[in-house]
Amino acid sequence: MSVNKEVKKVTTNTLQKMKASGEKIAMLTAYDFSFAKIIDGAGIDVILVGDSASNVMAGHETTVPITLEQMIYHAQCVIRGINRCLVVVDLPFGTYQSNSDVALASAIRIMKETGGHSIKMEGGEEILDSVKKIVSAGIPVMGHLGLTPQSIYKFGTYTVRAKEEEEAEKLRKDALLLQEAGCFAIVLEKIPADLAKQVSESLHIPTIGIGAGSDCDGQVLVMHDMLGINTEFKPRFLRQYLNIHDQATQAVEQYVNDVKSKDFPNEKEQY
Ligand code: KIV
Questions:
Q1: Which residues form the pocket of ligand 1, taking CB atoms under 6 Å from any ligand atom?
Q2: In the predicted model, what is the mean pLDDT of residues 252-269?
Q3: Do 260 and 142 sit in the same domain of this protein?
Q4: SS3 content of the chain, % helix, strand, coil (to 5)
Q5: Residues 145 and 250 in one domain
Q6: 128-148 mean pLDDT
Q7: Structurally, how many domains does the chain consist of?
Q8: What is the residue-averaged pLDDT of the chain?
């Protein structure tokens, strides 16, 4: 199935209808105007302005350092590039964990200053008050369970989560709590495919998987990974569609040669 051209603007209602009709939701991250324009033009349903910007744009090892101001900047750039898709903006680490008033203030800043359509937060029961408060203020919230990179220092590794029954049971419970709290969708990151299937079937809101198998209602990848801009990260779940790293390297090497050999610019490339 290709892009649904009937849908002029993707909203949270559109995603709900897609789950009901069995149409899979395609989501990718983006952090700047030019790529957002390409991705939106190619028919993506949802762009996530992910806090993975901390890794792929800023070069940090984790998502922990990125600030609210930096996320706002990335989201503003993305919004200028899109026309059709729904834009979700990550609330970065430290802007919602302390209490629900702080969380609401952070979410309001994102909505007012970026023009984004919704926000995403990591965690289950522990962030429920904040989710409820933000949803009550009219801001759509996407949940995020399983591997939650903002808590990397608590878990210590990026390995598959919820393999043991105790953690799987907490995840099932958290997913239902997030749905009851009003989340419009939930990202399931790096959990066993069977568990993701059970969770997806138990919810009426869509699940978006990353390393969570084919039975989620949608899929998300980090743009830099799937386009092969960043080639060092090769988890099993990643499908790499291009190798921009190698193509860009070759192009730049060619340009350097052309400048050094005085081949560039030629007569037609000057005034
Ligand atoms: O920040 C991000 O890119 C994410 C995705 C991995 C879901 O949260």
A1: 29, 48, 50-52, 90, 187, 189, 210, 220, 222
A2: 98
A3: no
A4: 45, 15, 40
A5: no
A6: 98
A7: 2
A8: 97
